[in-house]
C-alpha cells in the first residue's frame, strides 16, 4: 500500500472522526510522489549543497509505504475495537468491503495504462526497466491482473507501485485471524501471537520450499510487512481499546522510553546506510527489513500520541488542514496514478533538451507540473472509481 486511502474511516464511539489520519495519508502519498520526481530528475544521487540537502529526504520515499501499511492496520482495527473485537460485517463482509474499495481503482488504472501503452509505448518514458514497459508478456498480464506481484515480483513491469497493492491485498487475508486472536486472548497475547505468526511467515519466505523455488516464486514479498500491519492494529488498541482512558498515562511510562530508544536506533541506521548514489541505495535496500520495522514502531507510537492530542493542538491542526485532508481522501488514487503522469511529464521535459546543469529546473518542473497534474487527475479518478460512481453509472442509480 498502500499504500491506500480506502481503509475504513469508522472510529470508536468516543471519536466521530479522526481527520489527522487523512493528513498522514496525504503526507505519505506526497512523499512517494515527490520521491519519484527526485528519481526522474536526479536518480539516486544525493545533494551536498546547504540549499538542496533537505530534499535528500525524498530518496527515502519507500518509508512512505511503511506509513501507509501501519495506517492500514490502525484504521482497520478501529471498527473492530468499537464492535467488541469482532468484524461487524463478518469475514465475508470484510472481504467484500476491501475488494470493493481496492480493486475497481486498481483494475481501472491497470487497463488505462495498457490502453495508452498500446498506442504510445511508454517504456522509453519510464525511469527504469521495472517501471512502464513497451512490451507486455502474458506472464506480466496474468500476474498483474491476479494481484500476484508479491509472489512474482519479476513480472511487476506495468506500474512500479503495484507491488505494494498486492502485498496489502494479501495482508487482508490475515486480518480475520488477527481479530480472532484479539477477541479470544486479549490485546497483549494477541500482539505476541501476531508477531510470532509474522516471524513464521518471514522465516518461510526466507527458506521457501523447493517447489516455490522451482516455480521462481517468492512468498509475499516483502513478507515482513505483516509486522507493520500488526503494529498498526496494536497502536489502535493502545489508543482506543477497552480501558484506554484508564491506562493512557501508565502506558506512556513504557512508550516514551521505547520511542526514544527506537529513535536513536533509527537515526543510527539512517546514518550508517545513508543513500548517496545507486550503490548505497542498494545497500539501503538490503537493510530495508530492519529499517522499515524500526520506522514502523516510531510511526505506531506517533499514532498513539496523535490520537491522544486535543483536536485544537498544533500537531492535529497541521495534519487536519483542509489541503492535507482533501488529498488524504484520494491518496490511494494518487498512489496508483502518479507514475504514468510523472513519466509523461518527464518525457516532455526531456524533449526540451535542457542543459545538464539545469537538473534543478527539471526537478522543479516535475514537482510543479507533474505533481500538480497527478493530484488533479487522482482527484477525478477517485470520484469515479473509489467513490463508486462507476457502479452508479453502470447500474443507472443516480444517488
From TrEMBL:
Q: Which residues form the Acyltransferase domain?
A: 19-378
Residue spans crossing the bilayer: 26-45, 57-81, 102-125, 162-181, 188-205, 225-245, 252-275, 287-308, 329-349, 361-382
Question: Which Pfam families did the record assign?
Answer: Acyl_transf_3
A GO MF label: acyltransferase activity
Q: Mind listing the UniProt keywords for this protein, alphabetically?
A: Acyltransferase, Membrane, Transferase, Transmembrane, Transmembrane helix
- Report whether NADP shows up as a keyword of the record: no
Record protein name field: Acyltransferase
Q: Which organism is it from?
A: Undibacterium seohonense
